[in-house]
Amino acid sequence: MVCHLCTTTFDTSYFKNLWFGLSARGIRSLYVSLSEYSLPHWAQEIGGIDYAYLDAASRKKYPRAILKLAWLLRKRRVKVLQTHLYDAGIVGILAARMANVPVVIVTRHHLDEPQLLGGKLHVALDRWMATQADCVIVPSIAVRQHMIKSERVQEKKIEVVHYGFDFSSFRNGPEDRWRVREELGLQDDFVVGCVGRLFKNKGQIYLIAPLKHLVQRIPNIKLLLLGDGDKSAIEAAAHNLGVQDRVIFAGYRRDIFSCMAAMDLLVHPSLSESFGQVLVEAMAVGTPVIATRVGGILEIVKHGETGWLIPPADEQAVLQAILYLYDNPAVRKQMAENAQKNVRALFPVEKMVDKYVNCYKKCLSKVSKVSRRYC
């Protein structure tokens, strides 16, 4: 049995695809959350999954959560523990060592955000987790290179597994596009969209100043922002520049693919990116993309062929890229067509799950060899 431990919720397409992919290969999974009591929506729809909740929404509850998890790992005879996100990595490693779990895999979902935010303890514990794990799975070559260079983690310990997507679920016709546009009052507008948590590292603030200039060239332009978070800084900037009526905060949406299809252009202005899931999803539904030249994005977007790359934190580059693609609809169309074919070939969910399974087998094989050596 494989146990997946996450700090928060499993209510994402990544965990859904992973569950079904492992199940199809005959691998039983136990999903355990530190802080989320409820089953993910996708699990409720299929009648439930093997799920546990550690009741540890605050860090003061972690000691008890470690003991509870260790008991659960022993009881369920878990062979592989795979952790997701920072806190789950710490709790999971300590519990797994107490329970003598044969293999511990840490999944590093971030790139250099801790360094950018000045979290020295976070950086130190990231490195500690990498040294304690039997393997670290990362979603891009960029993350692997960062860990080798900045954290001095052994290259042989790091496995690159790009995220995989169930493209059969990306069904969006013209009616979905127009439904979203009508709902949000965007029927006749040129819609520039951005999808992601409202957080400074995601870079949405760099879209506001260009918007003031874009209005002069594209009178019907609207900026559609999807995602939860603190929008106060973006609202203030939009109000100060007099473009507040051009910015639509749509919050978190479950019909994200339809929302992406409703966009004429998606801009991803992130300052740091371990992979770029939003880009793959937008490209898969046929929406042309502009993205910053950072991290794992370079493994997804080919400049001028499948998307448009710009430097991070560069408002002038944002402005010029949007204007160029607005003025050249044929280029937008060709890039979108190229991108749709490319991501569907490169990032199918089957490829991700197969690599995960191979990683499990390789780690378990090493443990078996060590055990035989000391018998």
TrEMBL record:
This is Glycosyltransferase. It comes from Pyrinomonas methylaliphatogenes. Residues 21-167 form the Glycosyltransferase subfamily 4-like N-terminal domain. InterPro entries: Glyco_trans_1, Glyco_trans_4-like_N, Glycosyltransferase_grp1. Keywords: Transferase. It comes from the Bacteria. The keyword Cell inner membrane does not apply. It holds the Pfam family Glyco_transf_4. Residues 177-341 form the Glycosyl transferase family domain. One of its GO terms (molecular function) is glycosyltransferase activity.
